[in-house]
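Title: Comparing notes on inverse folding

I've been comparing how different people in this forum approach sequence design from structure. To keep things fair, I'm posting one structure and asking everyone to reply with a full sequence. Here's the target:
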């Protein structure tokens, strides 16, 4: 009797498993609609296979996602805040001070510094987003580009500065001349001022606490 029951139970379980497989097999004729996470029916339309024909089809990414960084260099005031806050030092900025205002950003902030170098090494970036938070002109943003795989890791270093070598050396020369003429226009320093400026001020005496001489060694105990 139990032998017949076992056979019946096996057939029943087999049928239940096969029925589920068959159901999924029939559903797989359909492909799931490509929907963004913000869509209202995102969780409702989950029938069919989820595989998509990447890279011809791509899943939409959320607006607040953190992917590749972009700097709209025309709106950058080269304040260095992003580089300072970056926990992994992947932003490299080489500033050159301008001798006068060089333009305005789209939000009206005056620009007074040129960017000879503005590199972001996305190979080091941990996508924390701190740099975009501190940027005063909001020119540094996270884009929706998440697929930027490369063969050579050095290609993950993205350069945003647009100055040519000639422009860089011209601006440097101009700044040097400006600083020299500013120095020449200053009144001559007095001797103590000159010493202070050149660092020739006598060093302050170093404070040394008086130490007590060590006393006699403790007598050996009798115990
Ligand atoms: S997202 Fe974070 S790690 Fe990446 S560059 Fe900005 S501050 Fe640095
Ligand atoms: S914080 Fe913004 S404005 Fe300042 S240097 Fe970085 S990208 Fe430019």
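Reply #1:
Here's my take.
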């Amino acid at each position: 009797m139990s032998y017949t029951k076992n056979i019946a139970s096996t057939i029943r379980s087999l049928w239940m498993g096969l029925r589920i497989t068959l159901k999924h097999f029939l559903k797989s004729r359909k492909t799931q609609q490509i929907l963004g996470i913000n869509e209202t029916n995102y969780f409702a339309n989950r029938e069919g296979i989820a595989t998509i024909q990447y890279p011809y089809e791509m899943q939409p990414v959320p607006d607040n996602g953190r992917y590749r960084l972009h700097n709209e260099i025309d709106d950058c005031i080269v304040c260095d805040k992003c580089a300072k806050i970056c926990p992994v030092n992947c932003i490299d900025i080489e500033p050159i001070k301008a001798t006068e205002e060089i333009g305005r950003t789209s939000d009206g902030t005056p620009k007074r510094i040129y960017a000879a170098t503005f590199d972001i090494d996305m190979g080091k970036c941990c996508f924390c987003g701190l740099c975009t938070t501190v940027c005063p002109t909001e020119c540094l943003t996270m884009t929706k580009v998440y697929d930027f795989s490369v063969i050579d890791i050095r290609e993950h270093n993205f350069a945003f500065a647009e100055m040519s070598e000639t422009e860089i050396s011209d601006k440097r020369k101009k700044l040097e001349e400006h600083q020299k003429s500013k120095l020449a226009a200053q009144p001559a320093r007095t001797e103590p001022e000159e010493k202070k400026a050149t660092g020739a001020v006598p060093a302050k005496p170093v404070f040394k606490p008086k130490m007590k001489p060590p006393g006699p060694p403790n007598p050996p105990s009798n115990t």
